[in-house]
DNA polymerase eta (Triticum turgidum subsp. durum), 373 residues
Amino acid sequence: MPVARPEPQEPRVIAHLDLDCFYVQVEQRRNPALKGQPTAVVQYNDWKGGGLIAVSYEARKFGVKRSMRGDEAKNVCPGINLVQVPVSRDKADLNVYRNAGSEVVAILSTKGKCERASMDEVYLDLTDAAKEMLLESPPESSESIFDEATKSNILDLPSDVGEREENVKAWLCRADANYQDKLLACGAILVAQLRVKVLEETQFTCSAGIAHNKMLAKLVSGMHKPAQQTVVPSSSVQDFLASLPVKKMKQLGGKLGSSLQGDLGVETVGDLLGFTEEKLQEYYGVNTGTWLWKTARGISGEEVEDRLLPKSHGCGKTFPGPKALKNHSSVKSWLDKLCEELSERIQSDLSCNKRVAQTLTLHARASKVLCVI
């Protein structure tokens, strides 16, 4: 269950960066002829053309969706390019994507505490860098603001296309802004600079959210895709959350979110404001009740972990329906393949990062029984 963490006393600048259609971008870099073309990356299992795991924006315009299989995507978009993920040992080999993600992390980590949340997602704590910028070269003292920063999306700011960039520039340069918003303005400029650097050095675009905590930054990073960023001023938090469906919130997409809807009639985060902290604690316990009360107000004390490397390495293979393994020799053969892959990744990790794995966990599913050894 979620746990409420104390909110830091000092204002923070937190960014969440999400690489756009990451698998597709990696394949487009490997094969530049795919750039600007409707493209999708498909699973190693080629049944009905393979399941789509990433779809380019060009393909989405034709109605292609990740829930489709390759054959269906071709019916919707006859000109689509389907690229199968690399295969090794009769299963998907994602190393090319992991390595590409590491390139991006190496760039982003130069500006502050960096947490690699997944292969294509990163959190940054830019508080110190933003404070330094505010002291040495505050936005209002700059004759020209970095062009990419003026393309930011600021919640609650008029979005008239003709005047949008001027409105954003005016917001970034406000001399009368409070300290929190000035830090956010610096954060927006820093993130814009990092996104341009990522594009220049890796050819990858990414979208970003900039806010005072991880929760809000994550919520808005995908609002304006691709290759854009969104800023959440403190004054816009309540209006933003008021109409947000509870299922959109991290940790509210499952049983807890369903309970809020079914038991309390809560459909949006704003609906939670109608309940006192004590009442929420009565329903869900002290920790979860307090977490819900804070979440409704946009409060989160979750820290960005300084973690550039994954916590663990894992490899697996599923055998659905008729592909289920039926004898010991088949099981042994696949265990050997998985152990070889895991061994290679552990050896590579040792060579590159000078660390050794300490625990091995084996998951095996037979029928509907899950075994953990």
Observations:
- The chain has a mean pLDDT of 88.
- DSSP finds 13 helices and 13 strands in the chain.
